[in-house]
Amino acid sequence: MSARLVLGPVNVCPQVREWLDLETLQRLVARHRRGDWGEVDARDARANTLAAYHQCGRLRSVYNLGQGLCIWVITDHLGTDSLQTTVLIPADE
User: How many Å apart are CA 34 and CA 17, to the nearest integer?
Assistant: First the structure.
């Protein structure tokens, strides 16, 4: 996906702030914005691509950073006034 997505406000869960430095956090959000969904399966990647194309629904990226640390970046409510993105560790959800 070549276009950058609009993500709305980005909320970062407290546990993520404890584990990631600002540079890594910004890099992951930038990957998500570019449509690099990380390590989602083929079905989720297709759903993300369709949601991004139609600007409706939800996007979820999964980034495994090693040492058991997995970060999700989720954008909800594409194409609405409620658009927002959350960065979390799956146990935070």
Answer: 22
Span 2-24, pLDDT tens digits: 467 899 999 999 999 999 999 99
pLDDT digits (tens, 9 = 90+) for 20-64: 999 999 999 999 999 999 999 999 999 999 999 999 999 999 999
What is the rounded CA–CA span in Å between residue 13 and residue 16? 5
Contact 59, 75 (CB under 8 A): yes
Contact 75, 84 (CB under 8 A): yes
Both tokens of 40, joined, read 């989602």
Compute and round to an integer the Cα radius of gyration of the chain.
12
Phi-psi region at 78: left, alpha or beta (left = phi > 0; alpha = psi -120 to 50): beta
